[in-house]
Amino acid sequence: MTMLKNVEANPETLNARMGITGRVRFEASALGGPVVVLEHPRGRATVALFGGQVIDWQPAGQAAVLWLSPAARLDAGQAVRGGVPVCWPWFGPPGRSLTEGMAGTWPQHGFARTATWQAVETGDSMAGPWVTLALTAPAMAGKGWPGKAEVRLTVVVGETLELRLVTRNLGSAPLVLTQALHAYFHVGDIEETRVEGLDGHVFHNAVALGPALAISSTLNSQIGAVTFAGEVDRIYLEQRGPVSIVDRRLGRRITMTKRGSASTVVWNPWRDKAGNLGDIGAEGYRRMVCVEAANTVYDAVTVPAGGTTELAAVYECGPA
User: CB–CB of 67/85 below 8 Å?
Assistant: First the structure.
């Protein structure tokens, strides 16, 4: 795998090189940056080059599945809240295993979500149209990060939405990695929403313990479905099976299956924290929930020199 050259972000040029009539189209978004639109008879998705971020997915006949902040902009140089941000090469604040030898202040959830990615390939398969975006670090990372890697995100839309995040270690030393596909889902009302598939799993409760900077022995155990009556910020451990968001208000079930991940994160900031964040809106917390395929400090990945690792998730939406 070769190092990437300068990022091309002109939609006209990208369409000439990689557009596929009726399937893959590059365009300038009303949010202020270039995007690629993937179209299929069963669904449509929009992927921003800024952040390598899916910002919209709408299955045919369904309301939008992903939640996006009303304040979202793709040209402000700031992380976009909503859609599916790529947290890479760390999730949350960088844990102690990742910060050794690092200088300076490092952003929450890494630097991939505030970098402009490069569109490198498109196609149309039996599963649906797809695009692959790529980012090389440390070129986009700033100074001080000790790693050297390339990360590629492939997005496929058809009957489902599929995301595949592949990291290749281009350095001569092992690369320790945490990461997440930080999906924000649109729900009718958070108090009429539950998350199934986590019963019996222990979890790190970040509301009580703070961010997971290191492995904690103080864990809780989930009993039944996850419901919401206040802030929820949890990492569920050794969780590899499907997880479903059951939305009673909208009458639908959104199911995530994943691979390359043993951590599932569930988050809703609730009223007070949402107000402090500033880009969710006064009642925005009622309309969203994050359910994330992740590698956290509890299942951090060590990628050998020259090796690769993949984190992937498939999302489908149907009646509850």
Answer: no
**Range of the structural domain that residue 121 is part of:** 11-319
Is 204 designated active site?
A: no
Catalytic residue among 182, 186, 201, 204: 182
What is the pTM (predicted TM-score) of this model?
Answer: 0.95
Could you tell me the CA-to-CA distances from 190 to 19, 185, 187, 229, 279 in Å, in that order? 38, 11, 6, 8, 18
Say if 140 falls within a structural domain: yes
What does the alpha-carbon distance between residue 169 and residue 171 come to, in Å, rounded to a whole number? 6
Which residues fall within 8 angstroms of residue 81, CB to CB, at 6 or more apart? 68, 69, 71, 72, 184, 277, 279, 280
Reported as type and span, the H/E element at residue 301 is strand 301-303
% of the chain surpassing 70 pLDDT: 92
Assess if residue 193 is contained within a domain: yes
DSSP codes of every residue in 16-56? HHH-BTTTEEEEE-TTSSEEEEEEETTEEEEEETBTTEEEE
The model's pLDDT over 210-258, given as tens digits with 9 standing for 90+, comes to 999 889 999 999 999 999 999 999 999 999 999 999 999 999 999 999 9
192 catalytic? Reply is no
